[in-house]
Design brief:
Helices cover 97% and strands 0% of the residues. α1 packs antiparallel against α2. It has 190 residues and is mostly helical.
């Protein structure tokens, strides 16, 4: 009985340790996923800032060149009225190029916004994965708790059964001893 009790107690202790190890592993996994999501999000933000800065510098430089060209042309117009028609053509070309650059900038910015939205979708998916892992951890904890409860019930039942067996064996021994006494008593009278 003590061996069974000891074995059951060892099984319960083993399950407790296993549950603690699994809990620590799940917590470590949750922390690493959370760190990974944060790093992805920060990386996306940093990358977005860098790309925006590069695009802004690029187009500011182009706009600066275009603006300088327009100013030079306007100065030439003021100085040379006879070349006014030629300069008007140049101004129109520069204005078209400026519109083209602005349209191109808007297109690239829209692409950049789509990239950020895609990365946000990945982050949202990872957050969903973390929620799923939390739910799975709770389910496993419930199963472990159920195992612990059933081990306790088994232990109680084995204690009851051992008690019944001991009582039965004791009753048999008393009957056997009583019979032996009767046989001895009846033999001594003869």
């Amino acid at each position: 009985f003590n061996e069974q009790k000891k074995k059951l107690q060892e099984d319960i202790n083993y399950e407790k340790r296993a549950r603690e190890v699994k809990s620590r592993q799940m917590a470590d996994r949750y922390d690493s996923i959370q760190k990974e999501m944060t790093d992805l999000w920060q990386g996306a933000k940093d990358e977005a800032r860098k790309e925006k800065l590069l695009i802004t510098k690029k187009y500011e430089a182009k706009l600066s060149v275009v603006t300088d060209s327009i100013e030079r042309l306007e100065n030439k117009l003021a100085n040379e009225e006879q070349t006014a028609s030629d300069l008007q053509v140049l101004i129109d070309d520069v204005a078209r190029e400026k519109r083209k650059i602005l349209d191109q900038q808007k297109t690239e910015e829209a692409g950049f916004v789509r990239q950020v939205a895609g990365k946000n979708a990945i982050i949202t998916q990872l957050q969903g994965d973390v929620s799923t892992l939390r739910l799975e951890l709770e389910q496993r904890d419930a199963i472990i708790e159920e195992y612990e409860t059933s081990f306790g019930k088994i232990l109680k039942q084995s204690v009851k059964l051992s008690g019944k067996r001991i009582r039965r064996s004791g009753a048999r021994l008393r009957k056997l001893v009583a019979r032996d006494k009767k046989d001895d008593d009846s033999s001594s009278f003869q």
